[in-house]
Design a protein that fits this description.
The chain has 113 residues and is mainly β. It has no helices and eleven strands. The mean pLDDT is 97.
């Protein structure tokens, strides 16, 4: 059974860089058939896709692309999200997912001064 677990800070200040990690259990981050994504749900809004990483490379939501980097750490079987210059609009529950079938429990990130 594939399980994913997010980790990272819960509270940030504007202009900082958000760094989240997703540890994968029951699968390998180097699985050539897997697509590993980050999505988020701002309060009172729907899900927003942030980006994906796979053996084919990375892809990003155009609205977030300039601030987003997704990478893999094979030594830890993790993939990570970096989002620069955060603002209160980046406040959301962040989820790591595999093909939208397997989901992490989510991590709440609040951006506030």
């Amino acid at each position: 059974q594939v399980q994913l677990q997010e980790s990272g800070p819960g509270l940030m200040e504007p202009s900082q860089t958000l760094a989240l990690s997703c540890t994968v259990f029951g699968d390998s981050i180097t699985n050539n058939n897997a697509y590993w994504s980050w999505v988020r749900r701002p309060p009172g809004k729907g899900l927003e896709w942030i980006g994906v990483i796979s053996s084919e490379g990375t892809g990003y939501n155009p609205s977030l692309k300039s601030r987003t980097t997704i990478s893999r750490d094979t030594s830890k079987n993790q993939f990570t999200l970096q989002l620069t210059s955060v603002t209160p609009e980046d406040t959301a529950a962040y989820y790591c997912v595999r093909e939208f079938t397997f989901w992490g429990q989510g991590i709440q990130v609040t951006v506030s001064s």
